[in-house]
Write a structure and sequence with these properties.
- Strands 1, 2, 3, 4, 5 and 6 form a 6-stranded mixed beta sheet that branches.
- The chain is an alpha/beta fold.
- The chain is built from 10 helices and 6 strands, in the order βαβαβαβββααααααα.
- It has 2 domains: 110 residues, no CATH class; 138 residues, no CATH class.
- The relative contact order is 0.08.
- β4 and β5 form a beta hairpin.
Length: 290
């Protein structure tokens, strides 16, 4: 990464230099051999010591470390943003790449940060006009460059996340439907096998709502047991992935409570029909059932 700006103190804090300083105007103009390093570089090259003042080599060119960048972690696509070094663009052109390098005079990427409160669209248009002017493009010619707005990138990522969430919700809905139908079938079989028992209970004074409550409780208990098994498997799988793949996982207690409550709801919804069927049985016919 080549950085060719000279921000003031406030901008330096915004760029995130945790120790040391940013490039001065003299260092920029004089192509001084200085460098800023990320936290991963510090951990690999200077474990347990202060990197400021140390010398590292970039393409066989010795550069003095004058500052350490603030930790940023991984990007959304998994790139380590702390495994980086930043040098003045003049130093890169004249000392690191050298004037004979075919790309020494070219800049592939320019990163611009807009101050808070500024109109990002207006700034983007100003940048476009400036780059077109520097590239000597005529009004009828198309841009030979492209500008990406982080807001648009964030919007695209949110859209992708929304689609993925809908896909996962559809898969979960199918799983719940299959599980609910399974609970309903089990309860219907239970009602059929216990018809004489139901008739006997009604004959000794049990009311229809008592039978309804009994089978609803059984359906809810069955679904809650399945929910607990699912929670144990989910938590265990998360810890196993974190241990084996070294991935950081986060378990939300509210999500577990919500899943447990939803299991009870599924039991009530799919268990109501068998329970209702049992509560409407005729006691005499139920006692005669073989």
């Amino acid at each position: 990464m080549i950085q060719g700006t000279t921000p003031d103190l406030e901008e330096t804090r915004q760029w995130g230099v945790t120790s040391g300083r940013w490039f001065t105007q003299e260092e920029m103009e004089g192509a001084t051999k200085v460098v800023l390093v990320g936290q991963t570089v510090v951990a690999n090259l200077f474990p347990g010591s202060d990197p400021v003042g140390q010398v590292i080599r970039v393409r066989e060119t010795p550069l003095t470390v004058i500052g350490v960048l603030e930790r940023k972690g991984q990007s959304s696509w998994g790139q380590d943003q702390d495994d980086t070094v930043v040098i003045p663009i003049t130093t890169a052109k004249k000392r690191v790449l050298g004037p004979s390098h075919p790309r020494a005079e070219s800049v592939n990427v320019i990163t611009v940060r807009v101050r808070d409160g500024e109109n990002m669209k207006a700034v983007e248009e100003e940048i476009r006009q400036l780059v077109r002017q520097r590239h000597r493009l005529q009004p009828y010619q198309e841009d030979d460059f492209w500008i990406r707005n982080l807001s648009e990138m964030l919007q695209a990522e949110e859209e992708s996340s929304r689609v993925l969430t809908m896909l996962l919700a559809a898969i979960a809905s199918v799983s719940l439907l299959v599980g609910g139908i399974g609970i309903m079938n089990i309860m219907l079989v239970s009602v059929t096998e216990r018809t004489r028992e139901i008739g006997l209970r009604m004959a000794v004074g049990a009311r229809g709502r008592d039978i309804l409550t009994q089978f609803l409780v059984e359906a809810v208990t069955l679904s809650l047991i399945g929910g607990m098994i699912g929670i144990v498997l989910g938590v265990g799988g998360s810890y196993a992935i974190a241990y084996l793949a070294a991935w950081r996982t986060l378990i939300n207690a509210q999500a577990i409570v919500l899943a447990f409550s939803f299991s009870a709801t599924v039991g009530i919804f799919f268990g109501f029909y068998p329970a209702r069927k049992a509560s409407l049985l005729n006691p005499i016919e139920a006692l005669r059932y073989e």
